[in-house]
Design brief:
About 10% of the residues lie in helices and about 30% in strands. The chain has helices spanning about 1-5, 80-90, 90-100; strands spanning about 20, 30-40, 60-65, 105-110, 120-130, 135-140, 145-150, 155, 160, 160-165, 175, 210, 220-225. The protein has about 230 residues and is mainly beta. The longest helix has 9 residues, at about 80-90. Strand 6 and strand 7 (about 145-150) form a beta hairpin. Strands 3, 4, 6, 7, 8, 11 and 12 form a seven-stranded antiparallel sheet that branches. Strands 1, 2, 5, 9, 10 and 13 form a six-stranded antiparallel sheet that branches. It has a single domain, classed as Immunoglobulin-like (Sandwich), CATH 2.60.40.
Length: about 230
């Protein structure tokens, strides 16, 4: 993790697409481009780590039928894969767990230019889906102990048979995995950028719940492309 986040920073903001819906193929599959952008800025947090920006860890995405979250349960305990993502920024374990869920038709990790998605950077990936499918994403709020961005009931990829298009950031929220005691953002000795290593923090013994941290960091847009 120490090497993963010891990267040069970048500044900039990717503009959001206009919200709306676009025509979809009749009852068929549609391919979407999904872009995750880090809108944090240098100096956003009062810390020297990463220049005060808030890196986003590589994200895990999954396409699944229905609104039931296949990656975690609000009020439940975090799985080992989610704990690894929320505490250490690695989507590998959650990706492995997603592969065992029958409702998930596809899942993969999305990386920034150097691994994490730094301030002003974006990552774009494609998904193919049919009416009834929803997109689920998860990425660590680096500069924390175990906070992560995700959407509980998924992002609807269709409204009826019309493909979703535009800015869907309002469907993504910041969660606390409840696995490690929270320290001040960007200052804790057991956060990834402190270099303490995995599983070094104090176990919290809590459950997954919405975080009360309010920082503008992530933007998600969807564009049907074929």
């Amino acid at each position: 993790m120490k090497k993963l986040f010891a990267l040069a920073t970048a500044i900039g903001v990717t503009a959001a697409l206009g919200a709306g819906v676009a025509e979809a193929k009749d009852h068929g599959q549609v391919t979407f481009e999904v872009t995750i952008t880090n809108n944090s800025e240098l100096g956003q947090l009062d810390t020297d780590r990463a220049g005060g920006q808030i890196p986003l860890a590589p994200a895990l995405w999954a396409v699944a039928k229905g609104a039931d979250n296949p990656l975690f349960e609000v009020g439940g305990y975090a799985s080992p894969g989610l704990e690894l993502l929320a505490e250490d920024g690695s989507p590998a374990g959650l990706h492995g767990e997603a592969a065992e869920v029958n409702r998930i038709s596809a899942s993969e990790s999305a990386f920034g230019p150097g691994g994490p998605i730094l301030a002003g950077q974006s990552t774009t990936f494609t998904v193919t889906a049919s009416p009834g499918d929803r997109l689920f994403v998860a990425s660590m709020f680096v500069q924390s102990n175990d906070l992560f961005f995700a959407n509980d009931d998924g992002i609807r990829l269709f409204h009826g048979n019309r493909a979703t298009s535009g800015d869907v950031t309002d469907r993504v929220e910041l969660w606390d995995a409840g696995t490690e005691v929270n320290e001040p953002l960007g200052l804790g000795g057991y956060q990834p950028l402190a270099g303490a290593g995995p599983n070094a923090g104090t176990d919290e013994g809590g459950v997954i719940a919405l975080s009360d941290v309010d920082e503008e960091v992530i933007q998600v847009t969807i564009t049907p492309v074929g």
